[in-house]
Amino acid sequence: MGDKTIKIALAQLNFCVGDIEGNTQKILTAIKRAKAKDAKLIVFSELALTGYPIEDLLFKEDLHLRVQHALTLIRKLTQNFYVIVGYPEKKGKKYFNVAEVIYDGKMIAKRYKYHLPNYSVFDEKRYFEKGEKSCVFDFRGIKTGLLICEDLWFPELSKKAVALGAKWLICISASPYDDKKFQKRIEILKSRISENSVPVVYVNLVGGQDELVFDGRSFVMNEHQEVCAQGKHCQEDLLFLEMHAGKSVKIKKEKLPKVLSKEEEIYSALVLATRDYVMKNGFSSVYLGVSGGIDSALTLAIAVDALGPKHVTAIVMPSRYTALMSMEDAYALAGALKVKVIEIPITPMFNEFLKNLKKALAKKPKDITEKNIQARVRAVLLMALANEFNGLVLTTSNKSEIAAGYSTLYGDM
């Protein structure tokens, strides 16, 4: 193998679970962009064709037919070009989490995920069978080890690939965000490189899916355990990098994105999660009660950054107990964020509830019941608006209140 410099592309994209046709179009567009930049390889994330987590959609027969059609379209764009793409494969009555390597219109290698996570938010053992321990393929004369997500977290598979001649490792992943996860990934790659002295390319999913949010931040670490390229946090990205292949693989250092504070990280994840939950479920607008307090203020800001002010409506619902300052703050906030405000006083409705409950609650002293009625009246109004105008309601209760029981079931939570 002579010395050579090769450009490769890492596609950190936001895929939608079940939208194989939409995901395929994203993949085809990224391939065309990579080829236009003279890249020779593009790498996509785990289960890119179907989105992640696929859950019980895996058992739909037509899903696998659609996956095969998508692969046919992708193969047509691989003349003298390599693509690594993830998808689920059905073999008889068994299902596998697969990474396929395509070149010149043909499958030249296939990785079946070996380590199946079954903890926290993961339950892959319910869906998939365990694959083989190694997959090494030839990329333009360079032996390349291929792993899928959890495979990288255990040392034996990387060691096996290097023992079979791999000069570098590629790992495709769908790793969800928490505020310590990126550093954990860094430490895992450092461990694998310390053990094997080869660079590692890590391509992660980005986007929200139900209660999960995937932060992206794909990255490449060289043999010196230095991050030499990194994707954006909570945004789609198409990274291009140069590798020099001789007796070993060297990765050229690229400019890294700005380091975010913990607050910036979390806020970006909240914005992405909100946007994708709304949009991927077929909605475009949201409604939320705004009181002038910090909880509804933060929720409103997240909603505006996620969807834009034209798709957010603030509902002000004063009662006899609402302070003038709260009303002023609510209107000031909505004005600053340029969102529409609807004011609906709840006192008449609240009084009507008390009137109709008077006999049933006779001789009972006033307590938290009356306060909870106010919260539930507000919830009815919010849901009515969302139903009528095909939107979603955003709750403004915080986790501390929920943990302490200081919130109203069927009201503000």
List the helices and strands and how they pair.
Elements: E1 4-12, H1 20-36, E2 41-43, H2 61-75, E3 82-91, E4 94-103, E5 106-112, E6 136-139, E7 142-148, H3 155-163, E8 168-173, H4 181-196, E9 200-204, E10 206-209, E11 212-215, E12 219-221, E13 227-230, E14 237-245, E15 249-251, H5 262-280, E16 286-289, H6 294-307, E17 312-316, H7 324-337, E18 340-343, H8 347-357, H9 368-388, E19 392-393, H10 399-404
Parallel strand pairs: 1-2, 2-3, 7-8, 8-9, 16-17, 16-19, 17-18
Antiparallel strand pairs: 1-14, 3-4, 4-5, 6-7, 9-12, 10-11, 12-13, 14-15
Helix pairs in contact: 1-2, 3-4, 5-6, 6-7, 8-9
Q: What is the N-to-C succession of helices and strands?
A: EHEHEEEEEHEHEEEEEEEHEHEHEHHEH
How are strands sequenced across the largest beta sheet?
Answer: 5-4-3-2-1-14-15
Give the % helix: 25-40%
Could you tell me how far the N terminus lies from the C terminus, measured between alpha carbons in angstroms?
Answer: 62 Å
CATH topology category name of the largest domain? Nitrilase/N-carbamoyl-D-aminoacid amidohydrolase
Query: How many strands, what sense, and barrel or not for the largest sheet?
Result: 7 strands, mixed
Number of domains: 2
Q: Strand content of the residues, in percent?
A: 15-25%
Output the radius of gyration.
26 Å
Extended strand count: 19
The count of helical stretches stands at 10
- pLDDT averaged residue by residue: 95
| CA-based shape | elongated
Find the structural class using helix and strand composition.
alpha/beta
Question: From the 3D coordinates, which CATH architecture of the largest domain would you assign?
Answer: 4-Layer Sandwich
CATH superfamily of the largest domain: Carbon-nitrogen hydrolase
